Every structure is written in C-alpha cells, then in structure tokens.
C-alpha cells in the first residue's frame, strides 16, 4: 500500500515537472532574446528537467521509468543539433553519476537516439505544417521507446515479459501524447506570434495611411478654395471691395490649412519648449475668453468653479490649445444647446480640471477609441483635435479620464502634477 502511494506521488511529481518544463520552454521559445541566449536557456531548462526526471523515477515492479526523453526530444528538435549533443551529454554524465547497472546498454540506446535525432532535426525544422511535425514526433517517440526496450531486453532478458512490454507500450502512448501536445501548442504559439507581428505592422501602415488621407483631404479643401478665389482676382472688372473680400477668404483658408498642419505636427511631436509656471485659474480664464463667443452662438451656458490657486509646470500655448480644443469639442457635442461646467480643484498633489457637458454622450466603444488616429465622433471631423489633447496632456505628465453616457453627457477629467509657486528649486523641478 505504501509502495503504491509513493509511486502515485512520484507520478504526480512527474506530471508537475512536465507541465513546468512545458510552460517555461514555451516562454523561452516566444521570448525576444537573441538566438544564442534562447539556445542557452532552452538547454538549461531541458537539462534541469532531465536531471529532475532521472533523480525521481517512477518505481514499478521489476524496473524504473521516467520521462527524461520528453525534454531531451523537445530540446533537441527546437534547439538543433548542438543542443541535442549537449543534452545527450547531460543524460549520459548524470546516469554515470547515479551508478545504475548496465551503463553500456543505456549508452548504446541513447547514442542511437542521438543519431536518430541528428538526422531528423533538419526535416522536423523544415516541416511546414503542424501535422507533419506531429508525424515526426510519432516516429521519434516510437523508435526511442523501441531502442530502450531492445537494449533492456538484451541486458535483462529474464525481466522481459508481457507485463514489461505492456508497460512500455503505455509509456510510449503517454510520451507521444505529451510530446504532441507540446509541439502543437508551441507551433500554434509561434503562428499567433507571427500573426500578431503582422497585425501590428498593418495597424501602423493603416495609421500612417489614415493620417495621410486625413491631412491631404483637409488641406486640399482650403487650397482648392484659395485657388478658386485667386483665379477670380484675375478679373479686371472686380471692384476693390470684391478683391479685398476674395483676399480675406483666401487668407482665412490659408490659416485653416496652417492650423491643420500645426495640429498634425503637435500630435506627431508633442514636445514642450518654453516650460514655466502656469497659474491654471489665469490660463482657464484666457481659454474661456476665446471660446465664449462660440458657446454663445451655440446656445451653451458655461459655468465655472475655481478652487484655490493651483500651479503646474507646462507651456502656456500648448495648454491653451489643449483646453480650447476640449471645450470646443464639448460645445459641439451639444448641437441643441446645453450647459457646460468647468471646475478646477487641487486634490493632494494633483491639479484636477473637469469639463462636463450635457451633450449627446458616447458609448463605451467610442470612449475607448478616443485619441486614436483618424477617429472622431463628428461627421466632418478628422480626429486630430482629440489626438492633440491626449498628446499634450501626456507631454505635460498628465492623464485624462473620460466618463460618458449616451443621451446624458460626457465628463473629461484632466489631472496634472502640481508645483509650488514659491518653491526655490522650481527651475530644477521644471528641468
């Protein structure tokens, strides 16, 4: 009874060792290290697993078995011939250290297995489909068990019987199933890794193409208008008032094109150059003066709530651009008019700015996609304005939180780290 229980414990230990080896090996296969480091780590993991399997064999009546062949075969197939020879050396050396009888038969069996792997490794690595690789594993596993049974029969013919052959067959099935599972999982992981790389490349290309399409489309419109009015200026019958009108429209369209390009450059490189102390109450008042006429035209009432004086380190022009874009978006989200609440407060060491509108709101999917290239909730928007907001806030070491509900409105919360206006070491803080 005790022997059976101990055998069951060792079997559970082997299962744990197989699973541990499997997950660690797959992790190293998927790692981004160089080939030499991957080879070293795979040999280390496989070699340690071999030693542990041989140290704690499963004792059965008449003989002992273990799963040392699993890390040996997997490590050799994926590591190559060099790793196969190193693992073979580990097995032989440790078997010699353990001092079990019939070392010659053991050496002959594993030398034959090494020769088999030596010829099979190139074919396995060149196999394109998972199905072919599983066939190779089936063949290798069968021949490996056959070699062990053959050498054992030559060394201990008196112990070779039907029970031993049945145990060998069961061992072969278990080993083949485990090896197949590991190979299938590794190959699927490699396929998923390659697909992930391709998807990332395609996403980058799509981002570039979307931004390029957005910029070219938005810039082409004002340029087309300018071209038309410049052609009209060639008419000799125009009055001075008409010429001035055409020129003013052309300049407005030119400013519009310049604004679009500026937004793009700000998104591409949201760097801060002239960093200084910003009094957020003062900066918010300036931004509100700019957008107040637009709010009045849109029928939006703005309510402002200021806390005590709050200071941050940043660039005033970039901060204005960020806040004005955010307030403008909030106003445009209320096409039928509404109420816009802007609050400024200091919580712990954070400056908190809340911009809350009573507009159309957004779904969770729309909130998650905010700030991504070429995404906008407006019919004629480019998405650049929102990207600029997120980029500038990040450049000033801030963060944005968005809460929204369709039909009820949206809350933008911007948090910046504060600084003390009287801090004598402010210059160092800014740097």
Automatic annotation (TrEMBL):
Taking every annotated instance into account, which residue ranges of this chain make up the domain Histidine kinase? 214-420
Coiled-coil stretches: none
The EC code for this enzyme is 2.7.13.3
The record's catalysed reaction(s) read: ATP + protein L-histidine = ADP + protein N-phospho-L-histidine
Q: Which Pfam families match?
A: HATPase_c, HisKA
Please state what class of enzyme this protein is. Answer: transferase
Q: Name one GO molecular function term.
A: phosphorelay sensor kinase activity
- What keywords would UniProt list here? ATP-binding, Kinase, Membrane, Nucleotide-binding, Phosphoprotein, Transferase, Transmembrane, Transmembrane helix, Two-component regulatory system
Q: Which residues cross the membrane?
A: 12-30, 36-60, 72-97, 103-124, 136-156, 162-186
In its UniProt entry, what is this protein called? histidine kinase
Naturally occurring in which organism (per UniProt): Domibacillus iocasae
Q: What is the lineage of its organism?
A: Bacteria, Bacillati, Bacillota, Bacilli, Bacillales
């Amino acid at each position: 009874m005790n022997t059976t229980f101990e055998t069951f414990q060792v079997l559970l230990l082997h299962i744990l060792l197989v699973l541990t080896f499997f997950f660690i090996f797959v992790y190293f296969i998927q790692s981004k290290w160089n080939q030499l480091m991957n080879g070293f780590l795979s040999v280390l993991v496989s070699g340690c697993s071999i030693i542990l399997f041989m140290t704690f064999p499963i004792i059965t009546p008449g003989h002992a078995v273990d799963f040392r062949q699993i890390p040996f075969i997997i490590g050799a197939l994926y590591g190559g011939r060099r790793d196969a020879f190193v693992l073979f050396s580990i097995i032989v050396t440790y078997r010699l250290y353990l001092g079990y009888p019939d070392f010659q038969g053991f050496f002959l069996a594993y030398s034959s297995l090494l020769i088999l792997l030596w010829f099979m490794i190139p074919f396995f690595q060149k196999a394109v489909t998972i199905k072919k690789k599983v066939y190779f594993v089936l063949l290798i596993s069968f021949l490996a068990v056959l070699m062990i049974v053959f050498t054992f029969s030559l060394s201990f013919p008196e112990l070779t019987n039907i029970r031993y052959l049945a145990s060998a067959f069961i061992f072969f099935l278990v080993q083949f199933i485990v090896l197949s599972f590991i190979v299938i999982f590794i190959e699927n992981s490699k396929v998923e890794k390659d697909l992930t790389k391709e998807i990332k490349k395609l996403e980058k290309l799509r981002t570039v193409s979307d931004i390029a399409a957005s910029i070219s489309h938005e810039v082409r419109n004002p340029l087309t208008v300018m071209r038309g009015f410049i052609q009209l200026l060639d008419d000799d019958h125009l009055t001075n008032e008409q010429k001035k009108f055409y020129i003013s429209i052309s300049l407005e369209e030119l400013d519009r094109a310049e604004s679009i390009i500026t937004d793009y450059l700000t998104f591409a490189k949201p760097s801060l150059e002239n960093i200084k102390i910003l009094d957020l109450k003062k900066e918010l008042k300036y931004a509100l003066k700019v957008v107040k006429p637009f709010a009045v035209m849109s029928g939006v009432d703005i309510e402002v709530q200021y806390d005590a004086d709050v200071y941050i380190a940043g660039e005033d022009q970039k901060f204005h651009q960020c806040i004005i874009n955010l307030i403008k978006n909030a106003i445009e989200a209320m096409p039928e008019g509404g109420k816009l609440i802007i609050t400024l407060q200091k919580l712990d060491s954070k400056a908190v700015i809340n911009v809350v509108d009573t507009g159309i709101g957004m779904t969770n999917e729309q909130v998650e996609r905010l700030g991504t290239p070429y995404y906008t909730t407006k019919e004629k928007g480019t998405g650049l304005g929102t990207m600029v907001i997120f980029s500038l806030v990040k450049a000033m070491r801030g963060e944005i939180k968005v809460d929204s509900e369709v039909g009820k409105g949206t809350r933008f919360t911007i948090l910046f780290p504060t600084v003390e206006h009287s801090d004598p070491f402010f210059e160092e803080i800014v740097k």
